[in-house]
Design brief:
single chain, globular, Rossmann fold, 8-stranded mixed β-sheet, 5-stranded parallel β-sheet, 422 residues, alpha/beta
Amino acid sequence: MKITTIGLGYIGLPTSILFATHGHQVTGVDIRPSVVDTLNQGLIHIEEEGLQALYNEALAAGNFQASLTPTHSDAFIIAVPTPNNDDRYKSCDLTYVEAAVNSIIPYLEEGNLVIVESTIAPRTTEDIVQPMLEQAGFTIGKDIFLAHCPERVLPGNIAYELVHNPRIIGGVTPACTTAAKAMYGTVVEGELIDSSASEAELSKLMENTYRDVNIALANELAKIGTDLHINALKVIEMANRHPRVNLHSPGPGVGGHCLAVDPYFVAAASPSFSPLIQTAREINSSMPAFVVDATEKLMQDAPNKKVTVFGLTYKGNIDDIRESPAMDIFGMLEFQGYDVAAYDPHVASAPLTIEEACADSSLILVLTDHSEFTEIEATATAHMAIPRLLDTKNIVKETAANMTRMHLGNVYEHIQVKLLQR
């Protein structure tokens, strides 16, 4: 089967490689010449466990090529970004999706399959994409087949989860669902779930909204614990020993293109009936300011204004900084006049060594749960002005013996004043 994928980012590239390693002829399209050039030189441009090896396999089989333009194919997969609009509810910006659809229309032929994998607002496939294809002269479900098949993978484990996770197949018509299932059935070992396109769209959004809401509860608890001088992490640990309770962990906020973005698409689609979702977004979006406020209190007795940030990505062991609360905290501290050094072994734009980043620092802020941060060598922090660490991810297990270690459950013990509830 000939497949063209539009968008070679964190989902489009692994998806393309997956199909290519299962015998399909794949053309991956991206508007960035640097991405196309890098891929055609045999290298992937994102950090993802095991993906380079799979890419090597696809190239060896002659089943993948990168291009700036689409080509005639049997199936087209749209996997382009869907950022937020700058409006009241941060609705779904469909600019890239619409551009991708327009780019493939000249190449569409009778019998083709069009899949939208991009995360989109409810009813987008039926209300936006379908009319675009119909205006081009196609009858959906007869001439060509259209479906929304959202990804549901964990960054850092994408190659495995694309194969083994259940996959929702949201066809615009039953015939569209059948056509899409036939294609995904060649690579997916997990269950293929029949759905309408709109049900698939909302299901994907609610999967991430569920997590966002539950993280917001944990973050609100961290604020309550700080206000009342109660260790919120201890409270969570004890509460989770109840057989029907599973509180999430608090942190500096949520990021990435899922949790920090998708709930807005639901709220924007139905603003009058989504107050809980909107409140959860406000709570999680407030956490960078909460961490900065704690930092300012901790730095009141510091001999200098140097703060070291550990981690810039939105989650551990990846290189993705999209919507990262760590980046927000970094920028807010710089705006407040702090000398901020960043150490992140996964991000090329953070070139400092751990020793360089920690030298003369008065506080380390752990903002990402990279595995490298579980144990911090004493030699790395030996030249700090004050050996202190605020671990917002509660990941650090071992540091220098003289290091003062704090987390979001006990930071109140070290500032002795209430934090502002921003």
